[in-house]
Amino acid sequence: MRFLFGIVVVGLVVLVGALAYAMRYDEMAEITPPAASTFDRALLDKGTLMAGMGDCEVCHTRAGGEPYAGGLALPTPFGTIYTTNITPDPETGIGKWSLEAFTRAMREGVDREGEYLYPAFPYNHFTKTTDEDIKAIYAFLMARVKPVKYTAPETALPFPFNIRLSLAGWNFLFLKKGPYQPDPTKDEDWNRGAYLVEGLGHCGSCHSPLNALGGEKGGANKFAGGAAEVWYVPPLNTASLAPIPWAPSALVNYLFDGWDKQHGITAGPMTPIIRHLYDQDEDDVFAMAEYIASFQRPIEQAKVDDAMAFAKAREWNPDAPTKPADPALQKGATDFGRLCANCHKLNGQPVPLGLTTTVNMPDPSNVIRIVIEGIKPPPGSRDRSMPPLLVNDGDLAAMLAFMRAQFTTKPAWTNIDEHIKAARAPAAGH
Ligand code: HEC
Ligand code: HEC
Ligand code: HEC
Predict the structure, then answer these.
(1) pLDDT surpassing 80 at residue 30
(2) Mean model confidence pLDDT for the chain
(3) pLDDT score of 12 more than 80
(4) For position 269, what pLDDT does the model report?
(5) Long-range interactions of 246-252: CB distance < 8 A, separation 24+
(6) What Rg, from alpha-carbon coordinates, does the chain have?
(7) Which ligand sits nearest to residue 135's alpha carbon?
(8) Which residues of 334-365 are buried (b: 16+ CB within 10 A; e: fewer)?
(9) Which of 131, 147, 275, 336 has the fewest Cβ atoms surrounding its Cβ within 10 A?
């Protein structure tokens, strides 16, 4: 028996080894970095926009570092992954990469030398990009990005994740190679939106839940919400937590400006995404809104009116914040009145908190981060900033319990103290 088992194991090892060998990629030849003058202006302008759509700069720039030079630490369940230098520096960046090598990286997640890249680089989305847009991004990186000599820290994941060849298996399961194929049953705008959201926008990499292997769940779980560092990422499908469902026009406001009067403001890791959308062609952002809106539940006017009336009655009511019926919530109410209500008050400028997804989420982590770091709004809603506030843990916990009870119809948050502890830990990543 044991002998047979041994043969089977050896056979399997040989088979896996042979398969992995067959899945190896070849190195692609080095080139002399192309001169900026070889790219035409229209291509470069398009590349500038499409690189913004792909948030290349967001991930490939570390705090205080030069744009696109890499070195940002991305925390993943498998360990810390560092972004690389994608400036056109020939030694430490991608200056020696041909368009073919760059296209292969975007489509198949493999570097110029033929080494597999980790899917923390969202090539499972970027693969959907057309040849033309990939060429435009390449031109932009080569001609408009300043070459920077900098080598990012090496990514060293623990065994077995340090064996990059094992990503052949991940790709087999989760990578559907090749450009986006339009759905003929949908209109042109929807398809354009789908192309951008599913491709360069890589929205699902944060907004869809991941399975144990780090692959995005699909079907009913598509856009069902996820996590980004300590931030809760809200669902963008029928499970949306927004008290008023997202209409296409509200999505346009939010994606361009980061703010909508029925939904409130953007915060945390969503902010740099919005900052890049601000510069995009209007038609493209409208198309993305149309696509996302097609995942929303239908809007019933009566429910919208109810949600609005509820939020105003609970928040824009001078007596409410200081006098909740439940004695356990009175300290929180007093603290909120002292620290928050001079801005978040009767007919105040900010959207009633009860209308925001932020206080309607299953956990308070985003509210906690917002109180700690404040809100630095993107260009479209520049004047809506909130300063970071110094609040001790006890006061914060009391306010969170009060806000949840006062502004929403959702069950009380549990484990508030643990969430405060986690959110206070130094923020990694973006
Ligand atoms: C969510 C973060 C993220 C975004 C957004 C992102 N990248 Fe990356 N990228 C990474 C990480 C992480 C790596 C390194 C992966 C590894 O070490 O296996 C990487 C690696 C690369 C590489 C391989 C470079 C090398 O030297 O091996 C290229 C090329 C690249 N990215 C281009 C881009 C472009 C172009 C965009 C925008 C369209 C982009 N990336 C957006 C995270 C990101
Ligand atoms: C790096 C992770 C990340 C990526 C990528 C990302 N988002 Fe977000 N998104 C978030 C987070 C976190 C929030 C919650 C922000 C907050 O609390 O204000 C959010 C909020 C939103 C909301 C508001 C939802 C609500 O109910 O309030 C919309 C709409 C949205 N994102 C759309 C998109 C679209 C479209 C894309 C792709 C272009 C995208 N996001 C990509 C992290 C991400
Ligand atoms: C100096 C004014 C100011 C103070 C003080 C202030 N805020 Fe804010 N807050 C704002 C502004 C402005 C916004 C942006 C929202 C808008 O304009 O709709 C905001 C947004 C928020 C949001 C995000 C809502 C969303 O749209 O998702 C939360 C949560 C929040 N504040 C909580 C608090 C809490 C809790 C306190 C007290 C501890 C507080 N704020 C104190 C001005 C303030």
Answers:
(1) yes
(2) 93
(3) no
(4) 96
(5) 246/292, 246/293, 246/296, 247/293, 247/296, 247/299, 248/286, 248/289, 248/290, 248/293, 249/289, 251/288, 251/289, 251/292, 251/293, 252/285, 252/286, 252/289
(6) 24
(7) 1
(8) bbbbebbbeebeeeeebbbbbbbbbbbbebbb
(9) 131
Judge whether 117 and 123 are in contact, CB under 8 Å.
yes
**For residue 407, which of 347, 354, 328 has the smallest C-alpha distance?**
354
The pLDDT value given to residue 266: 98
Q: How deeply is 301 buried, as exposed, middle or buried, from its count of CB atoms within 10 A (0-12, 13-18, 19+)? A: exposed
Asked if pLDDT for residue 104 goes beyond 60, the answer is yes
At residue 347, the pLDDT reads: 61
Whether 139 contacts 39, CB under 8 Å: yes
Pocket test for ligand 3, best of 315, 386, 390, 408 (most atoms within 8 A of CB): 386
Residue with the two structure tokens 């060998």:
21
Q: Give the Cα separation of 140 and 134 in Å (integer).
A: 10
Tokens describing residue 390:
């110094």
Burial of 54 (0-12, 13-18, 19+ CB in 10 A): buried
Check: CB of residue 193 under 8 Å from CB of residue 183.
Answer: no
Which atom of ligand 1 lies nearest, measured to the CA of 97? 29
Question: Tokens for 39?
Answer: 């790219």
- Which ligand places an atom closest to the C-alpha of 332? 3
Q: What is the Å distance from ligand 2's center to 233 Cα?
A: 6
pLDDT at 317: 73
Read off the amino acid at residue 314. R
